[in-house]
Amino acid sequence: MIAEIFDALQYAFIQRALVAGSLIALNCSFLGLFLVLRRFALIGDGLAHVAFGTIGLGLLLHSHPIYVSVPLVMLASLWILMISEKAKIHGDAAIGLVAALGVATGVMLASVGRGFNVDLFSYLFGSILAISRGEVILSVMLSLVVLMVIVLFMNDLFAITYEEEYARVLGIKTRRMTSMLTICTALTVVLGIRVVGTMLISSLLIFPAVTALQVARCFRTAIIIAAASSVLSVVFGVFISYLFNLPTGATIVYVSFLLFGTAYLCGRLF
Amino acid sequence: MKVLEAEDLSVKYQDAEVLTGVTFSTSSGDFLGIVGPNGSGKTTLVRCILNLVPAAAGSVRLFGTANDRFDEWSRIGYVPQVSDGRKRGFPATVGEIVATGLLSRKRFPRRLTRKDCQTVDETLELLAIQDLKGRMIDRLSGGQRQRVFLARALVGEPELLLLDEPTAALDPSMRDQFYETLIAFSRRGGTVIIVTHDSGSIGRYAATLLYLDRRVIFFGSFQQFCRSERMTDYFGEHAQHLICHQHEGGALDR
Question: Which residue range(s) make up the domain with A68?
């Protein structure tokens, strides 16, 4: 089996999948920890639904779906924040509302532009092994931007996540930070769709965070565990799916669940 | 020097006026107790001072600057009302939480240095909670957590300390210790503003009283409060002298 894994590593598509997948997973783990602790984890799911609609639009316009999705999903993320503040709708309801509109748009566009349904539905469950060189370069660049933003604002995000009102008294621009976190999530969700698909992207955000929360006793450890478990999920997921000819996105989710279960048991035992 | 000036301050939640025409001020070294019954607007007043809720009318000045333009947040230490439940399982140690109190002194990218860690250690030592540093904040008792939040407010060496019901979870001996720290801070020239519903004991520690019931019922020293006939009419003689704490160990000396 080890020989087969080394064989797999010779393939450019496996290399691309590992590089892009690991970086996107790393972003998801950092963002997911903040989102889960702020009870805002389902925004990933909501934005993925929006991305379903924007991918449909991209296919209809014969443009690359990712290029169309990045700006539109970022705008949708800000819209979720705006309606949850201004329209006095709770975050979960705002996410549900925008997500439903996203899916409705996708279905509507699929109906109008007959012929690309197969392409559109391939985005539902991801196709990381089919990721192109251009997509890898875009994913790596955008992931590094998101990573840099998170690292630079780590202390601000930590303060806001623990106690938003107190963070304001520290002089932290909490609203701006929340918008930034949401935009970074939007960007990561769009990139992550290639890894696990719109249906499963929230797992990349939620699983590493909840895995870390089972065992971490300080924030630094939580970040490290979340990052490690997300990268391990993608790496193992890619190899297992290659070796046993399984769907990669679903395999990544199963590995994530396995790591969560292990962390849960460790948290109870120690 | 005036540290805080509130003038004709009113706050509304939707259409209901929660505070009406509140005017008071504090100077360096003052120890002000804000007292009032439940729902009297004490927490709202503190939050309005910190520009966390907008004023419907009137103004607040912090160190001479309108609070909506104020940006020298390192001059203020804040201990918010304890709100448990929301942060269950939060993976943070006491050391990490106290260190966030230093962020107001930092500019982008707000990195914490080795010296900052020493400052955190010194503050924890000052409050005799050094042993809690590595403990998870979630696993502390209410009283321990309050002392941690006081450490977080003090670590940045502020000039004004605003505390909202900080002694609610403390037992009497811990409460005395808590107030001693505040008195020491005040003696060093710091200003303390503390919100409490414990009108019976605040007079033992604070020098000035603001009694609030959606508007200012009384603002002045405890001696003035003790001698105020208006307060006798408002509270009755017994309650007035329970609050004033001017007659410790003896009969009323009016």
Answer: 2-265
As a whole number of angstroms, the distance between CA A242 and CA B35 comes to: 68
> How confident is residue A92, by pLDDT bands cut at 50, 70 and 90?
confident
Rg (CA), chain A: 18
Min Cα separation A179/chain B (Å): 17
Task: Count CB neighbours of A85 within 10 A.
Answer: 13
Asked if B242 and B73 count as a contact pair (C-beta separation under 8 A), the reply is: no
Work out the minimum CA distance from A161 to partner chain B, whole angstroms.
9
Q: Does A152 sit within 8 Å of B108, measured CB to CB?
A: yes
Q: What is the mean pLDDT of residues A230-240?
A: 96
Is B250's pLDDT higher than 50?
no
Report residue A110's pLDDT band, with 50, 70 and 90 as the boundaries: confident
Q: Tell me the C-alpha distance between A59 and A109, whole Å.
A: 9
Over its C-alpha atoms, chain B yields an Rg (Å, rounded) of: 19
Rounded to the nearest integer, the mean pLDDT of chain A is 91
Å between A169 CA and nearest CA of chain B: 6
- What's the domain count of chain A? 1
CATH assignment of B2-244, among 3.30.780.10, 3.40.50.300, 3.40.50.150, 3.30.200.20: 3.40.50.300
Assess whether pLDDT exceeds 60 at residue A262: yes
Spatial distance between the Cα atoms of B244 and B208, rounded to a whole number of angstroms: 10
**ipTM of predicted complex:** 0.93
> Is B148 in contact with B82 (CB distance < 8 Å)?
no
Q: What is the dihedral of CA B88, B94, B97, B103, to 10 degrees?
A: 180
Q: Is the peptide bond before A208 cis (omega within 30 degrees of 0)?
A: no
Tell me if A34 is assigned to some domain.
yes
Helix (H) or strand (E) holding B120: helix B114-126
Are B136 and A217 a contacting pair at CB < 8 A? yes
Nearest to B167 by CA among B211, B198, B125: B198
In a domain, A102, yes or no: yes
* Average pLDDT, integer, range A11-40: 94
Interchain pair B92, A155: CB under 8 A: no
Q: What is the mean pLDDT of residues A190-197?
A: 86
Q: Which residues on neighbouring strands pair with residue B163, listed in sequence order?
A: B79, B194
CB crowding B7-16: b at 16 or more within 10 Å, else e: eebbbbeeee
* A270 inside domain: no
Kindly determine whether residue B93 and residue A213, on different chains, have CB atoms separated by under 8 Å. Answer: no
B17 to chain A, any CB pair closer than 8 A? The answer is: no
So what's the pLDDT on residue A90?
83
Q: How far apart are CA A139 and CA A74, in angstroms?
A: 15
Phi then psi for residue A113, to 5 deg, are: -100, 70
